[in-house]
């Protein structure tokens, strides 16, 4: 597997060698990695004998699962059709993994429900099982996202211009409900680099309604270090 992944990395680097290309995966995948890691850590440290903490933590898992389900749908509906339109069969392996991830999402949701309903003496065992299964889901997704960022990007960059990729991105973003978009902003913006952060919020500043842009800034402010916030304000001219 390592040799295959190294080869994919080389392919992607070669495809982008002529300059920085539009990357449909970069920002959202950073956000997903952060959200998955944070949720997994929360489950690992959870006091399952504390009813409030148990409810709050399982709710966080359900929020992660809902977001992952939506993310799969966005890729299935926008990116995979773009791949298939110009490179038939290119999305086949990842599409199969998406179906597997959907089954895992349902299973993890059922495990959360069972944990909330089980007898107090059984909670520790059920929580440990949920943690182990969630850790597998996270690890599978980390590798899955790497394949998309290398193999899929290589195909997209070879067959689409940046302007066409931006059109795909804009159509995808336009399909996202406001509440989901704000959740995505909360997890993406703190964990992307300053240049990506400035580009994303600069686009919002230019095109989103002012109240939505201001709400996004308010949402991410507590999750940025002072230096990061200062850099962002300077890049936005604020």
Automatic annotation (TrEMBL):
Q: Which CDD domains match?
A: Hr_FBXL5
Q: Which domain of life is it from?
A: Bacteria
Where does the record locate the signal sequence feature? none
Q: Which Pfam families match?
A: Hemerythrin (PF01814)
Q: Where's the Hemerythrin-like domain?
A: 23-149
Q: Which Gene3D superfamilies match?
A: nmb1532 protein domain like
Q: This chain belongs to which protein, by name?
A: Hemerythrin domain-containing protein
Organism, by scientific name, is Variovorax rhizosphaerae
